[in-house]
UniProtKB/TrEMBL annotation:
<feature type="transmembrane region" description="Helical">
    <location>
        <begin position="104"/>
        <end position="123"/>
    </location>
</feature>
<dbReference type="InterPro" id="IPR035906">
    <property type="entry name" value="MetI-like_sf"/>
</dbReference>
<keyword id="KW-0812">Transmembrane</keyword>
<feature type="transmembrane region" description="Helical">
    <location>
        <begin position="71"/>
        <end position="92"/>
    </location>
</feature>
<feature type="transmembrane region" description="Helical">
    <location>
        <begin position="12"/>
        <end position="36"/>
    </location>
</feature>
<comment type="similarity">
    <text>Belongs to the binding-protein-dependent transport system permease family.</text>
</comment>
<keyword id="KW-1003">Cell membrane</keyword>
<dbReference type="InterPro" id="IPR051393">
    <property type="entry name" value="ABC_transporter_permease"/>
</dbReference>
<feature type="transmembrane region" description="Helical">
    <location>
        <begin position="143"/>
        <end position="166"/>
    </location>
</feature>
<keyword id="KW-0472">Membrane</keyword>
<keyword id="KW-1133">Transmembrane helix</keyword>
<dbReference type="InterPro" id="IPR000515">
    <property type="entry name" value="MetI-like"/>
</dbReference>
<protein>
    <submittedName>
        <fullName>Sugar ABC transporter permease</fullName>
    </submittedName>
</protein>
<feature type="transmembrane region" description="Helical">
    <location>
        <begin position="187"/>
        <end position="208"/>
    </location>
</feature>
<feature type="transmembrane region" description="Helical">
    <location>
        <begin position="251"/>
        <end position="270"/>
    </location>
</feature>
<dbReference type="Pfam" id="PF00528">
    <property type="entry name" value="BPD_transp_1"/>
</dbReference>
<feature type="domain" description="ABC transmembrane type-1">
    <location>
        <begin position="66"/>
        <end position="269"/>
    </location>
</feature>
């Protein structure tokens, strides 16, 4: 088998590499080039240098979207990971029906973001109509509506990762801590959480990147209303590119800035959490 694989590896590698280059590398490189151009289609692109980036930073909605997205990412990072860890901790205890509960908690993650957005919009509007208001009329309600939606969708997925991490902790360590007289709280903070750092790294990374990349839920639930105050970065880029005539290059420049931002934040987070793994 090994000889066959070594002989025919190009048959398996070349199609995959070709698909990756055609589907990702080429469009990505072309997107970077177009961010320095003024265009309506890729055939009439005219190089304008850094003007698109200057216009992107001059657009008042862009820094506002960044602030809103950052606040949203921080809140959801804490809520999703804390709640997912607590649920995972509860469902790894010896209680009946844990498999059923795991399935129920995970199911929202299988529903598309657009569908979730419209469903939760109907739920929120039905509630807020009794108070003579609506989700799209109030910035604070829109923010917490998005937080609730995303938490409801993603907690189940992060729960699965945390359950895998909890089950990977050797029982000998827990037993040794019990013999030494450690109570539940001490075992949680001195044994369980330190040994869960790889899972925490994964869940933290996924939560942060998903929060910054959030688009379909934002589009369906609030649409950026009122007056772009609940507009996140991905939706702001979409509205710039498709909603403003002649701003396609600016939208593309925003997309490049957005990409760099997500990569930098993701790398910083990975470095911080992985350093904790090494220390443990």
């Amino acid at each position: 088998m090994e000889k066959t694989i070594k002989r025919y590896w190009p048959v398996f590698l070349i199609p995959t590499m070709a698909a990756f280059v055609i589907g990702f590398i080429v469009p990505f490189a072309e997107g970077i080039y177009l961010s320095f151009c003024k265009f309506t289609t890729i055939r009439d692109a005219e190089f304008v240098g850094l003007q698109n980036y200057i216009d992107a930073f001059k657009d008042a909605t862009f820094p506002d979207a960044f602030k809103f997205t950052t606040l949203f990412a921080i809140v959801t990072l804490v809520l999703i990971n804390v709640l997912a860890f607590l649920v995972a901790l509860a469902l790894t205890q010896k209680i009946k029906g844990t498999n059923i509960f795991r399935t129920i908690f995970f199911m929202p993650n299988l529903i598309g973001g657009i569908v979730l957005g419209y469903v939760w919009q109907l739920i929120f509007d039905a509630i807020f109509s009794k108070f003579d208001t609506a989700l799209k009329l109030n910035e604070v309600l829109g923010f917490w509506g998005l937080v609730i939606l995303v938490c409801w969708q993603q907690i189940g997925y992060m729960m699965i990762v945390y359950i895998a991490g909890l089950q990977a902790i050797p029982e000998d360590i827990q037993e040794a801590a019990m013999i030494d007289g450690a109570n539940r709280t001490q075992r949680l903070f001195r044994v369980t959480i330190p040994n869960m750092m790889p899972s925490i790294t994964i869940c933290t990374f996924l939560t942060i990147t998903n929060s910054f990349k959030l688009f379909d839920q934002n589009l369906a639930l609030t649409g950026g209303e009122p007056l772009h105050k609940t507009e996140m970065l991905a939706l702001n880029i979409y509205e710039t590119f498709y909603g403003r005539v002649g701003y396609e290059g600016v939208g593309q420049a925003k997309a490049v800035i957005f990409f760099i931002l997500v990569v930098v934040i993701g790398l910083i987070q990975l470095k911080l959490t992985r350093s904790k793994e090494v220390q443990q």
